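pipeline stage [seq->struct] | target=chitinase | organism=Nonomuraea salmonea | residues=597
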Amino acid sequence: MRFRAPAVLLAAALVALPATPAHAADIARNPGFESGLTGWTCSGAETVTAPVHGGARALRATPQGNDLARCEQAVTVLPNTVYELSAWVQGAYVFLGATGSGVSASTWASPGAAWSQLRTSFTTGPATTSVTVYVNGWYGQGPYLADDVQLDGPGGGPEDTQAPAVPGNVTVGHATASSLDVTWSPSSDDVGVTKYEVSRNGVAPTPVTGTSYTATGLTPRTSYAFRVRACDAAGNCSPYSTQVTGTTAEGGGDTSLPERVMVGYLHASFANGSGYIRMSDVPDEWDVIHLAFGEPTSVTSGDIRFTRCPAAECPGVESESDFIAAIRAKQAQGKKVLISIGGQNGQVQLTTAAARDAFVSSVSAIIDRYGLDGLDIDFEGHSLYLDPGDTDLARPTTPVVVNLIAALKTLRSRYGDDFTLTMAPETFFVQLGHQFYGPGQNGADPRSASYLPVIHALRDDLTLLHVQDYNSGPIMGLDGQYHTMGGHDFHVAMTDMLLAGFPIAGNPANMFPPLRQDQVAIGLPASPNAGNGFTTVAEVHKAFDCLAKGTGCGSYRPRGVYPGLRGLMAWSINWDVFNGKEFSRSHRAHLDGLTAP
């Protein structure tokens, strides 16, 4: 049996429902770009007279590097109201969306050279009075076109035409080798400031919600100029502030190492079929020698021990005194010798402050005992992970991440500027972050990209990052395609992500900033026996030349040319010698050829 609801209940239900859009109203300003870019805030954009979808003009914008060539405008809206957003677009990848308090709507397409209409809709929240609608392209995909943007629904009140005041007291400070902090005083507006925009050296501005901004990925000992403007919800922006400059600090890499380096792991604590190599017999081609491995007494103790391979397992092993003497001889030749912590079997979880402190104390004891130059972090397996909700790259909260960062900073401070710090994560812990970051949607593994906050926190102290481009599943690159290990394109795509930066979990508003070129080396197996994903000498040279010279590239085109790319890492020195030294001899000669005048 069905019952009719009382009229008063029907009326109440109708009041609670969101208002539907007025389909005849387009409340976007200059939706067809007939007045140029008026009403829009854009980067890398212009208006063109052909091709157009309607009227006489259309938008044409070109992504460059990390800049997606976004065009956006703020529109006043009503709370609890349904809006429909659409635009006509052309291009390889084009995105359309809207953001605001309680609003996050987006859609995309790859229509190519034919006009295609993108559509999405959203419902404003109970306190939403403004949304920002946007259209943008994607990394390395060439220009896109947009026309006839339509935001269908009721406007939010009288039009705001007054721009905010110019931001004051703009200051540049806290210089590191690769970053500068910019701060300013809040601006005033008749309605309210919704964002600030910071322009560096006159390029497209970066939106900021607060009154400070950190520019990263900068070059040491280099001056940069900044200007700031304030914008309101209606898209009115103040003039830019007076330009101010700042200079990054000294740094920019370990100048005691060659311009191009070869990094290799030495099986110092075990044998695995490749044969034992005495420290004095390490070939001269290797510039950085990682002693593999220091391991914990238990997973969560933080107490790291390094035990040299026993004679029963490693026939011909030298005495302790000869081992130390050989380290000194290598250092006298300009080589760096580091203790590597972790490896496949060495799970290290610094879950407590006590474990953190034990890590610092025990690692320091190893460094001091053997007179080593620093530390390599080779955490694998379940050593690192991210807790639910730990999504802020710059402010991690998971104890194993926070405590590792603190321990490394303490060691760096203890040993000073000469301390060499390297990291050797797997692609799963770094480049996978382009798609997944910790325990997110679709049941992502909490370990996904969990190295990223560690790398980010130590980026000014990091000597080398050499991600293991092997033992890896397919990884999506900045081109939106999956790349498989074993060929030059995999190394180009994986390295390009480190040097160009990439959006974390596909969110362009949450970027992993690029590292300096001198901080990055490509990690490889030294022979087919050393690991899955062995790459031939010719393919490695092709990858390095593509990245460092921009020549010989395959289907993947990097976002830039990186002449400062530092070198190559191999697992391992032992496997290279076992394979007739093909890796060290072939690649040393090629790298030296690249640095020759």
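stage status: PASS
auto-comment: Confidence is low (pLDDT under 50) at residues 1-24. The radius of gyration is 28 Å.
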